[in-house]
Every structure is written in structure tokens, then in C-alpha cells.
């Protein structure tokens, strides 16, 4: 009997919560909870049965350095057991797995770095690379050839070629004489737009970038040989919401309130037909149809959990899950044939849910 387990990183709770998702009804059932994960912010799933949790992104505990913890997943119950961990030299708000599963890439928002490090328990060195102010994601392309970063503070998206070992971005032409690795290339986004998260279509020929501060979703054509991105379209996820442009945020900046754009996550359905983007100030989800050529057509807006920070789509493509930073809940939505989102179930989580991953077992 196949099972689908949902893992939620809860920052203020310091836990990864485990829930079971019924593939027929969309019902969420609370399961186990793994604690001791200080300010866990993001997750990366190895479908073979390991979940990597990035902890202490904002360093609220000065005696506990940033780290990534490997969680072993139980196939029958989904329970996550903490295993080896690796300390990191910089905070990491986003983690993704390398093509061979032996290393991870991370984005350091506060230090403006791309970080490459061996998975906990794997031998190797840790290295960081300049990727621009307020780097918010590090996403490996579907072909495993490049890792892409979005610099929210510098308004640019960069790409680094991954070398033959699969463990490090290769030295690019024009790299500094001291051996520092430069991006293979980058594209500038609109000033003040704040590119935050990036997703690829299944082919890797289209990249979609959500901008935290402007609410735009940019569609890029990707050259799979060079990694280069060429802008095809900018679509608005916040049109009609009457929000002012958002500011770059930091732990020391003043809260601008809920009258500004504050987008968070975007997801693409496995069949490539729909894209969903989350906006935190209005606690809404914007759904787009993906038309011929990968271009977007806005369809509708759906109210969701308070301050939605993370989303996921289950492997079957039937359900979208969204968690609310301020609601401490997660909702499962059934995805209709027309892309509509209908709430199927809701469950409580520990405090400050930020990130969701789904694991399907046989």
C-alpha cells in the first residue's frame, strides 16, 4: 500500500512535524514530531529515505552554529530520526540536493553566499561563493548541469556550472586570480523587484522566478548548454491587491506592516499545467495556467493560511499543501482539472511552519 508523508519545518517550534496524507481524500493525519532542530528553516528530500534539515538560519542561539541535520525516514510510519549533522560557516535559508545525492547547495540570505557542502556523513570540504546580497535560493537544474541563485538584494539571478564530480561549481571564465569562483552568468531583474525563489519546468527549458518585493513572476527561456536565461514574460501575482512595493527585510529592519508586497514561494504541478505563487501580506495564493511556450495566464486567487511561507505539491499531483507562519497550520487543497484549489483538510503544526516536503513510499 502506497503512503504519502508530509514533512513540515517549524522554525519557532524547532521541530520537523510528520503528517500522513490520504491520497484519496486529502485528509491530513498528525504523526510524529522530531525536536531539537533549532530554527529549522528549509528541507531537502532524498527520495531514498533521507531528509536534510537546515537549522539556525538567523542564529538566535549564539552558542549553536548553523548546521544541516540528516533525518532518516521510516518507510512504514514516516517518522524522522535525527542522524549525523554538519556545521556550516554561514546561515542557510534554502537547501537543495546535488545530482548524485552526495552534496547539498545552500543559499545564505544574511551573508550573500552560495554554499556547497558534503551531505552529513560524507567526506569532503565546505566552500562558499559570492552570489549577491540576500541570496534566497540555490536550485539545481533538472539536468544537473548548473545551480541557480536568486539575489533578492542585488536584483539578479546567477548560475554556476557544476563540475564533473557533481560536488562543486566549476571555475568560470573571468574568475578572480585568487581562485574565487565567479558565476558562469547572470541576468538582472527589475530594480527593487527582489527575486526570491526559482522553479524549473520538467524539461529544464523554462525557469520561473518569483519576486518577493514586486510580486512579479518572470518566465525565462533556458539554454541547457550554457545555462543562460532569456526573459520571455513578466506576469503579476499581486495585481488588484493594492499593495505597495515591499522592502528588503532583515532581523534589524522595522516591520513595514501588511500593506506591502511580500511574496514567498511558488510551485508547478507535475503535469506542467499550473503554477501557484504565495503572497504573505494578504495570505493568498495566485494560480496561473501555463500555456504554450511556457507563458503564464492568471486564473484566480485563493485565500489561505495566515502568512503563507511554504508550499508543496504531493507526488501524485492531486494536492497542494500550504503552511502559515502566523497560523501554525497546514492546509491540503485538492487541485481541480481547471487548476482550482479546494480545501480538503487542515492540521495544526508546531510554531512557525516554513517549509514542506512530501515523500511517497511503496
TrEMBL record:
Matches recorded under InterPro entries: Cycloisomerase_2, Lactonase_7-beta_prop, N2O_reductase_N, WD40/YVTN_repeat-like_dom_sf
Pfam family, one: Lactonase
Homology family: Belongs to the cycloisomerase 2 family.
Name of this protein: Beta-propeller fold lactonase family protein
Species of the source: Sinomonas terricola
Lineage: Bacteria, Bacillati, Actinomycetota, Actinomycetes, Micrococcales
Amino acid at each position: 500500500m502506497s503512503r504519502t508523508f508530509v514533512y513540515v519545518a517549524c522554525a519557532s517550534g524547532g521541530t520537523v512535524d510528520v503528517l500522513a496524507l490520504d491520497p484519496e481524500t486529502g485528509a491530513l493525519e498528525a504523526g510524529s514530531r522530531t525536536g531539537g532542530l533549532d530554527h529549522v528553516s528549509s528541507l531537502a528530500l532524498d527520495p531514498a529515505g533521507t531528509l536534510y534539515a537546515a537549522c539556525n538560519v538567523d542564529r538566535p542561539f549564539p552558542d549553536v552554529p548553523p548546521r544541516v541535520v540528516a533525518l532518516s525516514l521510516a518507510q512504514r510510519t514516516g517518522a524522522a530520526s535525527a542522524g549525523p549533522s554538519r556545521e556550516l560557516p554561514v546561515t542557510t535559508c534554502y537547501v537543495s540536493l546535488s545530482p548524485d545525492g552526495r552534496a547539498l547547495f545552500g543559499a545564505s540570505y544574511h551573508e550573500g553566499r552560495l554554499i556547497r557542502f558534503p551531505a552529513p556523513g560524507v567526506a569532503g570540504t565546505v566552500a562558499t561563493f559570492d552570489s549577491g546580497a540576500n541570496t534566497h535560493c540555490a536550485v539545481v537544474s533538472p539536468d544537473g548541469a548548473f545551480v541557480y541563485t536568486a539575489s533578492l538584494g542585488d536584483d539578479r539571478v546567477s548560475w554556476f556550472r557544476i563540475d564533473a564530480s557533481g560536488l562543486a561549481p566549476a571555475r568560470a571564465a573571468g574568475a578572480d586570480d585568487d581562485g574565487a569562483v565567479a558565476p558562469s552568468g547572470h541576468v538582472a531583474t527589475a530594480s527593487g523587484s527582489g527575486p526570491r525563489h526559482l522553479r524549473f519546468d520538467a524539461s529544464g527549458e523554462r525557469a520561473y522566478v518569483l519576486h518577493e518585493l514586486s510580486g512579479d513572476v518572470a518566465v525565462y527561456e533556458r539554454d541547457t548548454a550554457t545555462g543562460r536565461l532569456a526573459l520571455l514574460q513578466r506576469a503579476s501575482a499581486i495585481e488588484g491587491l493594492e499593495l505597495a512595493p515591499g522592502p528588503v527585510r532583515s532581523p534589524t529592519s522595522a516591520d513595514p506592516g501588511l500593506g506591502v508586497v511580500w511574496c514567498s514561494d511558488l510551485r508547478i504541478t507535475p503535469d506542467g499545467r499550473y503554477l501557484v505563487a504565495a503572497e504573505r501580506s494578504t495570505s493568498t495564493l495566485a494560480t496561473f495556467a501555463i500555456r504554450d511556450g511556457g507563458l503564464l495566464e492568471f486564473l484566480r486567487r485563493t485565500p489561505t493560511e495566515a502568512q503563507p511561507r511554504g508550499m508543496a505539491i504531493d507526488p501524485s499531483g492531486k494536492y497542494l499543501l500550504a503552511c502559515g507562519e502566523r497560523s501554525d497550520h497546514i492546509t491540503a487543497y485538492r487541485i481541480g482539472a481547471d487548476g482550482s484549489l479546494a480545501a480538503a483538510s487542515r492540521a495544526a503544526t508546531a510554531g512557525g511552519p516554513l517549509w514542506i516536503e512530501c515523500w511517497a513510499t511503496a
